[in-house]
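Inputs:
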Amino acid sequence: MRPALILIGLIVVAALLGPLAIEWRYDAIDWNAVRSPPFAGDHLMGTDSVGRDLLARTLVGTRVTLGVAAAAALVSLIVGVAWGAVAGWRGGKVDEAMMRVVDALYALPFMFVVILLMVVFGRSILLVFLGIGAVEWLTMARVVRGQMLALRERPFIIAAEAAGTRPTMIVLRHMLPNLAGVAIAYLLLTIPQVVMIESFLSFLGLGVQEPMTSLGILLKDGADDMDIAPHALLLPGLVLVTILLCLTRAGEKLRDRFTL
Amino acid sequence: MLDLIRRRLLTALPTLAVVVILSFVLMRVAPGGPFDGERPLDPQTRAALMSTYGLDRPLPEQVGRYVWRLAQGDFGPSLVYRDFTVTDLIARGLPVSLTLGGLALLLALLLGLGAGLTAAAQAGGRRDHMLMLGATLLTSLPSFVVGPLLALVFGLWAGWLPVSGWGDGDPAHILLPVIALALPAAGAIAKLARAGLAEVLGQDHIRMARARGLRWSRILIVHALRPALVPVASYLGPAAAGMLTGAVVIETVFALPGLGRYFVQGALNRDYPLVLGVVTLYAALIILFNLLADLAYGWLDPRARR
């Protein structure tokens, strides 16, 4: 798990600081080097079909993609934990009703609702991650509720109740800290999902708009241009797969360790 | 069993109604309409068009009419593909999408279960690690990268298979799209099957079977596989949804005349009835698949039958 987290850390640092260290801007066009291959000429990782530096674009794209993913995952964390905690704590009818809502939403073709939203309200990054966060909280809510139900039977919770601790205090002080591990594990597992959705939206032309870029857009451009300049797929593809592999690995390890 | 089906249908209808009404209102509230072309229409023509399609009525009335017609199987006229009703377009696209999705799901199950069984048979071994790494890799590669990659390697470089078009369902045309669509789901199924098997293999009835001296392959397939499939069955619902979204990409990449392409085209052209029709159909398909998953669940795990 540790190597995975270190690798992610390195990628985040590179995405934040890297663009400062490169002489090319992500949107600067170099007409003398269109589709230049990697390790030749002035561009370390080559250029795309209109002569933009691929290293700079990949770093900026990684920053955008990770930013969107983190924000969306945070939305899903907040909504999911609140929903699941209330359902798991109250139990009975409230629990039943709240989980029916989750079931019903699970059955929706939510991806298509997000696409509808994009078409209707224009293509802002804000909407992209709000929309994605709204889709992704369902799993979190289910997991947190399950954990709450398991926790409630624990002796220390029963002891706290017998001692007359107020319910809000029990939830905040005794239960939420015990949920944190699982919640963080699922947070890590949500990010790959969000990255996939973001790249899917970018593929349809509904995500981040040019000249701004994201890993999804870079992959789409690379895929469109694959028969002439396959090298454009290399770096963004490598970064995307590394991020997803590392987060999945770390998330699964954490989940197995903390699930009750 | 019948009771379960009845209960599910009872929740399915309100869910469908909510999807329809919500998407209907969203599409109508949106700025811009289907008749906003490059040339502005003169007001009379515009008014005539609006009243022909019933767009000048109050919103609740439009929703009501739409739902009423929908209940009779009429999805209304397409606003962009003139001379076609949405029902026509769906009738053309649905067989393509169902063939594609069905074959892909089948292939994903075959590959995923095969890989999961092989990995779990020697848990912790080298083959296990390689297979699981491969499965994670497959789930992290977007289908719009896998699709063009397959097309490039097997279509353009090797020249073995055609890279676009449906070819009236010719197997050579279908093969690449089906593989591209199946791979991510196969990865997910392999991981679920492997995890399920690992859990079951630690249980008493497996130790009992080993003590009786049964062959390892027989224990895996006859005694361990069925309970281990429970998490796979519960993945079927989301898998179906994933197939539908994946199909949108794959149909675009391989230029297949399926529902997904109509959806994308409709959304970009603001062809309200077309988009609504496809969303409704997708919702119905996903609900149907969740029901099938529940039934499979009950068959696999007798404790879940109530």
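The two ends of chain A are 20 Å apart (CA to CA). Flag for discussion at group meeting.
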